[in-house]
Fold this sequence. Notes:
Chain A is α/β, with parallel strands linked by helices. Mean pLDDT of chain A is about 85; it is low at about 5-10, about 215-220 and about 530-545. In chain B, the strands form six sheets. Chain B has a seven-stranded mixed beta sheet with strand order 6-5-4-3-2-1-22.
Amino acid sequence: MCLVLSNQKSNMKLYCLSGHPTLPCNVLKFKSTTIMLDCGLDMTSTLNFLPLPLVQSPRLSNLPGWSLKDGNAFLDKELKECSGHVFVDSVPEFCLPETELIDLSTVDVILISNYHCMMALPYITEHTGFTGTVYATEPTVQIGRLLMEELVNFIERVPKAQSASLWKNKDIQRLLPSPLKDAVEVSTWRRCYTMQEVNSALSKIQLVGYSQKIPMDQASLKNSDVLVLTGLTQIPTANPDGMVGEFCSNLALTVRNGGNVLVPCYPSGVIYDLLECLYQYIDSAGLSNIPFYFISPVANSSLEFSQIFAEWLCHNKQTKVYLPEPPFPHAELIQTNKLKHYPSLHGDFSSDFRQPCVVFTGHPSLRFGDVVHFMELWGKSSLNTVIFTEPDFSYLEALAPYQPLAMKCIYCPIDTRLNFIQVSKLLKEVQPLHVVCPEQYTQPPPAQSHRMDLMIDCQPPAMSYRRAEVLALPFKRRYEKIEIMPELADSLVPMEIKPGISLATVSAVLHTKDNKHVLQPPPRPTQPTGGKKRKRASDDIPDCKVLKPLLSGSIPVEQFVQALEKHGFSDIKVEDTAKGHIVLLQEAETLIQIEEDSTHIICDNDEMLRVRLRDLVLKFLQKF
Amino acid sequence: MPEIRVTPLGAGQDVGRSCILVSIGGKNVMLDCGMHMGFNDDRRFPDFSYITRNGRLTDFLDCVIISHFHLDHCGALPYFSEMVGYDGPIYMTHPTQAICPILLEDYRKIAVDKKGEANFFTSQMIKDCMKKVVAVHLHQTVQVDDELEIKAYYAGHVLGAAMFQIKVGSESVVYTGDYNMTPDRHLGAAWIDKCRPNLLITESTYATTIRDSKRCRERDFLKKVHEAVERGGKVLIPVFALGRAQELCILLETFWERMNLKAPIYFSTGLTEKANHYYKLFITWTNQKIRKTFVQRNMFEFKHIKAFDRAFADNPGPMVVFATPGMLHAGQSLQIFRKWAGNEKNMVIMPGYCVQGTVGHKILSGQRKLEMEGRQVLEVKMQVEYMSFSAHADAKGIMQLVGQAEPESVLLVHGEAKKMEFLKQKIEQEFRVSCYMPANGETVTLPTSPSIPVGISLGLLKREMAQGLLPDAKKPRLLHGTLIMKDSNFRLVSSEQALKELGLAEHQLRFTCRVHLHDPRKEQETAMRVYSHLKSVLKEHCVQHLPDGSVTVESILIQAAAHSEDPGTKVLLVSWTYQDEELGSHLTSLLKKGLPQAAS
């Protein structure tokens, strides 16, 4: 995701509620507005839990309980050991964005950039007092809803009696082996939300169109002040196209040898690409008779929805709709019965099920969903292959509770997010004043510490953030928008001061409403033209002090004297002084000192005379 | 004085060949580029020579906007862009871009292949024309150039129909295209925000009609079809392939299902299946209900409605046929009509508006003897029914939209002059805005007074805001500053900053006034008296007595001196700057009145 901010106030703060670089959750505070940018849910926490099998698995239920080195086994109900790894035997829990750093009820607006980054939404909108609006595009909302629906379904259909909490005790957590020992903020981990909460959260979403300007912020990418950069590729070294090719060839190899292929996946996203690739590959690879199954509670909806958002697809896919043909070829795979989809293992699937086959199903963490069943079913045979394509989970960690495993494991992560080369190109084009990004992007990946090209390189250096940090964003706003009403504009008298530069003094009434400033002509000054009331009013100091402009310029004495004569003054005497002149009006007992940058009118008693002289002087000066 | 100019080249006091030229903020935009169904000669296309007599289209126009795929809104497009010659951008929504070329090709075929017209645009020209199209999303703000931006709003009417806002700076025009304000069976209602355009250009097809409830009309329609089928008659429903056709198909499909009817329903053209496919793929443009249920049941898959073959027209027994085109001016609907017109058991239902000159218009106005080609006279014995299903806003709907958008003025197009007149009065009465209804080629000029956006220095704004904080922050405050205009960059800064930026020195203008006071005491005591007097009188000002004996009121300096001749008189020198003139002169007159007697 790429978010651009411009034209903001000096004290603008970014609250970083998530440390996960691809599942960000940042809150931006400025000008008394609080905006949440994405709310991703870190699901890697579930890797610490045992899988939830659809049908009871003797293997999983017979895993030995874990005991401390000294033999103390008080945790053996909560923690189980499998091939040297320890897992929590409980309903899986998710690591929420930080909820204590900022009062979430003060968030005015949540902006969602894509469906992966909205999975924590119900946690934010439902129990924090949030009363604002959520903005997202239609595909984001529809696909996001499917992802949430699937998640809730996976967890709710296998109710687990046990809920472990002992291990979360800080003093006990210290004693546990890695990675449990190092897990962050376990006390804040939460179970999955309910469908009711999902619906309520989604009802707070306001749809936005493509490139629609939302009235609160007019951001254009170019020359922005701050660019918040998150959600770059998680596998910077893998080329997505190459990975897809590898995926196809491994898949073909397995089924040709009579094995089954399991593809753990989300119900939307990469799966469309995989199906499209297979569509082109099936016949040439001689796979026409191999059944492809897509199993997910939302499989049907996902396949249907993918075809109706053509306006959001690339040009090639858009042109297909004009024919009119469905933009994705999986429609044809379904029509020709090569691809079948089912809401779950139960029901029709069990009667249609033929092996060898290819199964696409979730969840990619291998902790819940129908995938757990296939891992148990196929794990023991080396003929079968599990191919990991989703980059969100470490495949080794995902597989840990299934060890020892005979089936082949292939890792073909397909991550189409921006890579570092694309980012540096983007930064060159966009030229933001400052870049803000998760700390992970400011150094090479730990596994490839020599690859200096796998980090963000920009000037000034990117500001990095980590979970629970607050960044003060460094810039000053010098100008604010204001509108000059036409009547006022008409009354302005511009004068050209230098070639190409004109000035006009403005005396106007400032109206401020809804953070919008408007300048209108000032009310006409009330003339003290007789009348008893008026007279009294003129005794007071003027209420609304009309500000006098500053003056600039100098007064040419000769011309000034000529002007005086023209206005009926006689008996004018001019004396030279060190810095200028003194003009004496002897008859009026008045003198005017004129210097380069000042004029002094010394005039007794006669106010009328003073005003006349003032106006004569002003004629030679410019007003500011 | 800036102004907005509007000249209809088509659809001015007329329905057909919609084409409206708008000049706004120095930009020229053409809204729609339609054909006229009632004419077969030059009049079928807008008169582009209005522009070309002064130069090339591409030089004059900044962009063309097409509101929806109906031919009276886009039918002249290939002629305009390929034959007259326009290479600039043409904006339309995605569904319009998808469907428009198909209808254009259909139109071309009828004109060239069936009527044998020469000098018509070719298939290749349609393709070349479509290459100039830029598709827009709903609510997307498209920057045509640095100054001109356009934005599409949902219009209902037909799939992909949009209203467009055209904006330059703070001036804007909204063009509605065709729209409807009530959701129907497959489309939602038009919607626009309170965008307060300088001008709203609205269609006014049903300017004087207030339609009864949709449900009544539907019931009526079904009843008539049912009766005709029951008595063994054939029912012809002329429609355009996309739009009302889908609406009526959904209606009949559900009715047939519910009543378990057996009489066949046909749709006459190969376009239908394709058309329905478009509706499936662009389901996001349909209404809530269809979008919500499309995964379970796609409303555009019909069980009872089958493709029509020409031979079926002579089959015995009852049937319902949807045939194109909708105004009975050509094609299959006209052929079937000629076949069935002679039998009083049969029925034709016209579900939409018919343009003058078409057979549809003639039979609707009661004509029963039609002169066909070759001097043949066709006697119409079949029942002729009219049922307004065309998805245009009625008078109520138009008023509703005007209320929604809150324009400063309204301009009517796409309607009949007489009906417009009525609506114009209504709009002027109810909304107190001026309403125009120019004929084709007639120009309406609206002076505008756009406000000017400038950048105000935060320092200046804050200073003013801080002053305004008490006692009432919301109260308007007086602001003084200098507007610096350099190229098109306007900045409002404090006068001091303006001087500084331009490297100019300030010229100080000072006044000094001598006031004579009768006071025999010492100068210092006089100054003290002046101080206490001013302190008590000028409660709201900062009055100070300085160590050197002088008194200040804000920036005004008062010094007491002895009179050179009269020891009983003291001279007060009151000195102030031009910026404090009011206070200075007020003080002088105050002091001239003398000091109160000192309390002993």
